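Usage example:
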Amino acid sequence: MNHPPTITDICEAAARIEPYIHRTPVLTCRAIDTLCGASLFFKCENFQKVGAFKIRGATNAVFSLSDQEAASGVATHSSGNHAAALAQAARWRGIRAHVVMPKNAPEVKKAAVAGYGANIRYCEPTLQAREDTLAEVQSETGAVFIPPFNDWRIIAGQGTAALELCHEIADLDSVIAPVGGGGLLSGTALTVSARSPNTQIIGGEPANADDACRSLKAGKIIPANNPTTIADGLLTSLGDLTFSVIRQHVADILTVSEEDIIQTMRLIWERMKIIVEPSSAVALAVVMAHPEKFAGRRVGVIFSGGNVNLASLPWKL
Amino acid sequence: MNHPPTITDICEAAARIEPYIHRTPVLTCRAIDTLCGASLFFKCENFQKVGAFKIRGATNAVFSLSDQEAASGVATHSSGNHAAALAQAARWRGIRAHVVMPKNAPEVKKAAVAGYGANIRYCEPTLQAREDTLAEVQSETGAVFIPPFNDWRIIAGQGTAALELCHEIADLDSVIAPVGGGGLLSGTALTVSARSPNTQIIGGEPANADDACRSLKAGKIIPANNPTTIADGLLTSLGDLTFSVIRQHVADILTVSEEDIIQTMRLIWERMKIIVEPSSAVALAVVMAHPEKFAGRRVGVIFSGGNVNLASLPWKL
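Running the assembly step on the lines above writes:
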């Protein structure tokens, strides 16, 4: 696909991945509605296969390949949910997945990716080493590179979560998705702008990694500069494809503090009795931190995932 | 009500409480099914109002009172979910709830019960002080005592969770509920034995608080002797009413170690991305610890609640 996905492309992606993924629930929580003074609808991708929305894009990309393209497998560089998702999607298709990971990646992530059956190739923890190693893997195996977010097939797949949300909940005033590389936010934006044109699309970003917010204001991509945030799914900078969609369709990107993210994550665990990862909490933290923008409104909030190391929680124990 | 609830009574309880409580979901988890070699159906009372099944019995009892009985309010002694549930149910009915709590109860529990609007009366942490203080409160206020479990109205209310489970999932080979005072297990037993007579009813209990297991074997109530278990909802001994039902309808009570409870609780959090309290984990831990009894079977598992102090988790951090 060499153009931004249309709503038809996103519907086709939804049909393509439907046999494999979960249709996740949209939950509500009266206690949190009362706290926020708004009606919130939480699209729970924390319950998704592999624990995150990433399986949507990866599965769409893997099943978009022709048999000939797929025969030599797929490859990516990632130490996070995309690598696990690509490995799972490749296993469903019956092909190999090669994953380049920095050798200092946390053991728990190495184990997760290995557990989904990927062939892992370790590299030095630099961007150059990562790209060189990926090129090596591709030339050795002929595998097709599936990028983590800056790819129309991935963006179309990520847009299917909002498709389900819009199908279930009408008349949303806003939809909020967290933004790292921008795959989820740009997919959400393409879906929502087509299906519910009066709904405002908003990105949520850690203030500590606010490159997307600054990029949107500047009108050009401003890369993140070694950000540190508890929302470790949101460290990445935008790509040219995701940025082009975000510029066109996203009304605003709002930032939240680390303290806001942690408090909101704990609130979700305590009140909703569900486990979300810090990146998910960012989307609700935006509502909590900017109550005047959402008072009395119907707001869709995309919980991106639920992969948390339970042995290391960010609040005082 | 001065007889064990019939299935008609339980259906009436369900209708009585339906405007107030959640119809909780029945979830499945392929990863846990694979681990257990069984098909498990989790009735998720952790998502219930007040965070536990206790709201069912309390609401049924409060709304079973005549206007005249209700006028002077309700009273109980409890430091746990029953007190919070009774306070919430009383608030729905617009009457006072008086709760006798030991003065050394954890602050988090005091705050929860106060948060639901109860009038709290503190007492010394002995059974005698608790009973004396409750008698005082009743004579001062005329409030009706609503016991935490040994009461047919409470038992009928707790049985409505299994009613929903049986309505949604047919042909269960077994249903497992945790057992403390026996309100949930006896309500479950009355419902399941009427609605699905070929389904085996099993209790799950911490080995460290195995008084119900020993009582069932002995054919008489053997009180717990200062038990200590992480499953703090299951410390209580059976009452004569709950025991009479359990004796008649429960096939077996199986026990699990503290380590089993903790590992199972963590497994549920990690794989299902939901928060359950240790007492809930007991029911699944029974399946994990006795795989030969459940292999290939369809098993209903009642998750009793999700109230956990997130600042103090039972695994290594």
